[in-house]
Design goal:
342 residues, mainly alpha, Nematode_rcpt-like_serp_H, 10 helices
């Protein structure tokens, strides 16, 4: 009998080290969640009042996905053989496919709230006469379309009755040695069929589409601002700075979620990356909440000042908690006369 390929084997020592790293990162992210939520609720500057609810929704989605991934899911992916196993609390009572589906729901909520925030900011800059100005009905339709793109394939995957006997048969018939997976936790080896191909390519399309829409909207906002001639140079500079900060605040952290997931699903479908690339890429996702919170807290001077003030008041209560003031307020709507440039 020909020996099976053991190149996908993950040593227990390596897995334990990665689990320890994830727990340390989770502790750091939990520490940062508190000041991040405090700043969003109490210190959001006036020029972000329009998008404040969406920023809060993004932060709540980050907290939920972080807690779920680190405590309830704790997955390890072996995309070369369509294999997932997990050791989180939920995996002890639910199927692995169900746990994976719930995680994609959480990521979908984060993507949806981020897009809603960007769309609201984009529409705030569009004059009423611009062809890019959408009605509330059209905006809702766009959000519903994105929501359906995430939820339909995810729901289908989550409720599909995968047969564990078939999963064991696929493990036994695989050219790779996968017997070690049975000792690591709740597992599932997904079949390679039209149904799974459709689910995987739907996920790839959704994540890439989200990035394309986000980047396109920011690019258009900068284009509109650069071609605006009525607004003063000083005001345009303030708006441009605000857009740059929001772009970094939303886009940079989400890359730590979107790119690993795109790599994961592409590896499942195409095997276009070296072995274990998808497995390693998913270990980047615990960094997302930390980067998200860190960027949020340092990107705006208002938030930095709020944190410094809170620390000073905690160390010296006699200073008192005076009201926070914001010296700069940026109007997001551009003059209506520039519709022809949009």
């Amino acid at each position: 009998m020909t020996p099976k390929d053991s190149s996908l084997f993950i040593p227990i020592a390596v897995e334990e080290e990665m689990d320890l790293m994830e727990r340390v990162l989770f502790g750091i992210s939990c520490f940062l969640h508190v000041p991040a939520l405090f700043c969003l609720l109490k210190a959001t500057p006036p020029h972000q009042a329009q998008i404040k609810p969406f920023l809060i929704a993004c932060q709540v989605s980050v907290v939920i996905s972080d807690v779920y991934y680190s405590l309830f899911f704790e997955p390890t992916f072996v995309p070369e053989v369509d294999l997932i196993y997990c050791t989180g609390f939920l995996c002890r009572i639910a199927a692995t496919s169900t746990a994976m589906g719930i995680y994609i729901y959480a990521i979908g909520a984060l993507a949806l709230s981020s897009l809603a925030c960007i769309i609201a900011r984009h529409q705030g800059m569009m004059p009423i006469t611009s062809r890019w100005k959408m009605t509330k009905k059209n905006r809702r339709a766009m959000i519903v379309g994105v929501l359906m793109a995430f939820t339909i394939p995810t729901t289908t995957f989550t409720v599909f009755p995968f047969d564990m006997n078939e999963s064991d048969r696929l493990i036994n018939e695989s050219s790779y040695d996968l017997d070690w997976v049975r000792e690591r936790g709740r597992y599932i080896k997904l079949p390679s069929n039209i149904f799974m191909h459709a689910i995987n390519w739907s996920a790839i399309t959704c994540f890439i589409g989200t990035l394309v829409i986000a980047i396109s909207l920011f690019t258009h906002m900068f284009y509109v601002l650069n071609h605006e001639t009525v607004t003063s140079t000083h005001t345009k500079a303030l708006i441009r700075l605000s857009l740059k900060r929001l772009s970094v605040q939303l886009n940079v952290p989400i890359l730590l979620i979107a790119i690993p997931l795109i790599v994961l699903f592409l590896q499942i479908e195409t095997r276009c990356f070296p072995i274990k690339t998808g497995t390693a890429a998913m270990f980047l996702t615990p960094f997302h909440p930390i980067v998200h919170n860190f960027v949020l807290l340092i990107i705006l001077p208002t938030y930095r000042n709020a944190i410094v003030g809170a620390v000073r008041n905690w160390r010296n209560p006699s200073i008192g908690n005076g009201p926070m003031t914001v010296r700069i307020s940026i109007t997001t709507n551009l003059p209506q006369s520039r519709a022809r440039h949009q």
